[in-house]
C-alpha cells in the first residue's frame, strides 16, 4: 500500500461519502478502492444497505472512468451508489433557470440591446425597438413592449414574464412569435409566455406553477 | 459660464430647426444673451429660418479648421442685440468636423453667452455626435406620431449614455385630432418616453409662413405656437409655467363657464 491515502471515507447522515484525491493517478485510485473495500474496511462495509456518494474533487473524469468506480463499489452488495460527482461537473452547469439571475434597473430604449448569460430581471420598461436576449428566463417588472428573446441558446423551457406584456415580438429558443390580437387581453394580471410543444402561448403568471412545479424534496429515507 | 442645450429628435422634419430658432429668439426676448449653433453641415437651414442667410461670411467648419476666429464667424441677429448665430458650412460634409472640435467651439461660446442652442441634424450618426459633444442638456423634439416617438426614444437612450439629461417638446399637436382620438395623447407620449415634458406646441400655419419670411414665429404674439415657445423659454429659465390649453380659441367666457359647469 502507498504511504499516502488517496481515499477518505466519511460517514454522514445519508450514508457514506468517498472523497477521492484529485491529484494521483486514476489507476492508483482504483487499486486503493479495491484494497479498502476488500481488506481494511471490510467490517465497516458489510451489513445493511448504505447510500454512497463519491466526490471526485477537481479531477476531470470521463463517463467511462466514473462507471469503473461505480462497478468497483457495486461489488459490495450493500453499497448503493447515489452519485459520482466532481467539482468540475457541478460548477458550470447553467440550466438556464434560477442560476445566474441578474437584476437590472432602468429603461431599455429603442436601439439598445441587453444580452445576458442566464436569467434577467429588469426593474423598468423595455421600449419598442429595444431588445433583451438571455440564455435563461426574462422577467420584466414593468412594461414589456420591445423584443424579448429567452433561451437564446436553445432552451425551450425558458419563459418570458412581464407585469405588462405588450411585446413587438417574442422569441423563445428558436420560436419567433408576433403577438396576435388576442394576446392583448387588457387584463391587469401579470402574464408570461412559454413554449407548449413548440408553439408560443401566453398565460397568467399565477398559472406558471403548473409548468414549473418545484420537485418536493423529502428528507430522510 | 453659460448653458449649452442641444435640440435633437432623431427623425427628420419634426421641427428641430424651428424649435431652435424660436427657443433661441424667445430666450433673447427674455433678455438673455444667446448664440445658436447650426451643426447640420451640408444642409444648413437655421440661417434661412432666421432670415440671416445673406449675412454669412464664415462658418463652423472655417472656425474648426482655424481659417477664422470664432468672433468673425458669428452672425448677429437683425432683431436682437444679444442674439447671434454660428452657421454651418453648406459646401462641406459632416465628417469634416470632429466632435472634439465642436465641443471646443461650444465651450468657447459658453464663456460669452448665457445660452448656446445647438441645432442638431436628423439621424444618429456623425452629425448627431458632433452636435451633442459640447451639450450640457438636451431638448428632444417629437411629434405625436409613432415613428417620431420611436426615434425620440432611441435618441434619449443615446443621450443617456453620454449623461446628457433630456427634456421633451411635443410639436405639431392638432387639438382637433386629439379630441377625436386620432392622434397620440400627450400623456401617452410622456409615459412611453419616460422623460420630463418641457412643452407642447400646437400645429400652426403661421410657423410655416413666418419661417418662409425669415422671421421666427415667436415674434408674432397672435400665434399660438409663439406663446408655446415663449412658455418653453420661461421654463428653461426655471419658471413654473402651466401647459397652455389646447382647445382652439376657447376664448369665449360663456363657453368656458359652460365647460366648468359640465354642460359644454
Oligomeric form of this entry? heterodimer
| Biggest protein-protein contact in the assembly | A-B, 10 and 11 residues
Rg value of chain B = 18 Å
Q: Please give the alpha-carbon distance between the first and last residues of chain A.
A: 36 Å
The percentage helix of chain B is: 40-55%
Strand adjacency order, main sheet of chain A? 5-7-9-11-14-15
How confident is the prediction overall: mean pLDDT of chain B? 91
Strand order within the widest sheet of chain B? Answer: 3-4-2-5-1-6-7-8
Characterize the largest beta sheet of chain B: strand count, sense, and whether it forms a barrel.
8 strands, mixed
Which overall shape of chain B is indicated by the principal axes computed on the Cα atoms?
globular
Number of helices of chain B: 12
Number of strand segments of chain A: 15
**Mean pLDDT across all amino acids of chain A:** 81
Number of helices of chain A: 4
Strand content range of chain B: 15-25%
- Which geometry of chain A do the CA atoms define? elongated
Give the uncertain stretches of chain B in residue-range form: none
Query: How would you characterize the largest beta sheet of chain A?
Result: 6 strands, mixed
Amino acid at each position: 500500500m502507498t504511504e499516502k491515502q488517496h481515499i477518505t471515507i466519511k460517514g454522514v447522515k445519508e450514508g457514506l461519502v468517498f472523497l477521492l484525491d484529485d491529484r494521483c493517478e486514476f489507476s492508483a485510485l482504483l487499486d486503493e478502492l479495491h484494497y479498502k473495500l476488500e481488506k481494511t474496511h471490510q467490517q465497516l462495509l458489510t451489513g445493511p444497505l448504505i447510500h454512497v456518494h463519491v466526490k471526485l474533487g477537481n479531477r476531470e473524469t470521463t463517463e467511462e472512468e466514473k462507471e469503473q468506480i461505480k462497478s468497483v463499489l457495486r461489488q459490495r452488495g450493500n453499497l448503493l451508489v447515489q452519485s459520482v460527482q466532481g467539482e468540475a461537473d457541478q460548477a458550470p452547469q447553467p440550466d438556464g433557470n434560477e442560476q445566474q439571475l441578474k437584476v437590472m434597473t432602468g429603461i431599455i430604449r429603442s436601439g439598445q440591446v441587453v444580452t445576458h448569460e442566464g436569467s434577467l430581471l429588469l426593474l423598468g420598461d423595455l421600449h419598442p425597438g429595444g431588445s433583451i436576449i438571455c440564455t435563461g428566463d426574462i422577467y420584466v417588472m414593468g412594461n414589456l413592449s420591445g423584443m424579448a428573446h429567452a433561451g437564446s441558446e436553445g432552451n425551450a423551457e425558458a419563459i418570458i414574464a412581464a407585469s405588462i406584456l405588450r411585446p413587438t415580438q417574442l422569441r423563445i429558443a428558436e420560436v419567433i412569435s408576433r403577438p396576435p390580437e388576442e394576446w392583448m387581453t387588457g387584463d391587469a394580471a401579470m402574464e408570461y409566455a412559454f413554449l407548449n410543444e413548440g408553439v408560443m402561448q401566453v398565460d397568467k403568471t399565477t398559472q406558471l406553477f403548473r409548468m414549473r412545479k418545484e420537485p418536493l424534496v423529502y428528507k430522510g429515507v | 459660464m453659460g448653458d449649452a442645450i442641444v435640440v435633437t429628435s432623431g427623425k427628420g422634419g419634426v421641427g428641430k430647426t424651428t424649435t431652435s430658432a424660436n427657443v433661441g429668439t424667445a430666450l433673447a426676448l427674455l433678455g438673455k444673451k444667446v448664440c445658436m449653433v447650426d451643426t447640420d453641415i451640408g444642409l444648413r437651414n437655421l440661417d434661412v429660418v432666421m432670415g440671416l442667410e445673406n449675412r454669412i461670411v464664415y462658418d463652423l467648419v472655417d472656425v474648426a479648421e482655424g481659417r477664422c476666429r470664432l468672433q468673425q464667424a458669428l452672425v448677429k441677429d437683425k432683431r436682437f442685440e444679444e442674439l447671434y448665430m454660428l452657421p454651418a458650412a453648406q459646401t462641406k460634409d459632416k465628417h469634416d468636423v470632429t466632435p472634439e472640435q465642436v465641443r471646443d467651439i461650444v465651450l468657447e461660446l459658453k464663456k460669452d453667452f448665457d445660452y448656446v442652442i445647438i441645432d442638431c441634424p436628423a439621424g444618429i450618426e456623425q452629425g448627431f455626435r458632433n452636435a451633442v459633444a459640447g451639450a450640457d442638456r438636451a431638448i428632444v423634439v417629437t411629434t405625436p406620431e409613432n415613428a417620431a416617438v420611436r426615434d425620440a426614444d432611441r435618441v434619449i437612450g443615446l443621450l443617456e449614455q453620454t449623461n446628457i439629461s433630456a427634456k421633451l417638446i411635443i410639436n405639431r399637436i392638432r387639438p382637433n385630432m386629439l379630441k377625436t382620438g386620432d392622434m397620440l395623447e400627450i400623456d401617452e407620449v410622456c409615459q412611453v418616453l419616460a422623460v420630463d415634458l418641457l412643452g407642447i406646441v400646437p400645429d400652426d400655419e403661421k410657423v410655416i409662413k413666418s419661417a418662409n419670411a425669415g422671421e421666427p414665429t415667436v415674434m408674432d404674439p397672435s400665434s399660438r405656437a409663439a406663446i408655446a415657445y415663449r412658455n418653453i423659454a420661461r421654463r428653461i429659465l426655471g419658471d413654473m409655467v402651466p401647459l397652455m390649453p389646447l382647445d382652439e380659441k376657447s376664448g369665449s367666457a360663456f363657453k368656458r363657464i359652460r365647460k366648468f359647469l359640465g354642460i359644454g
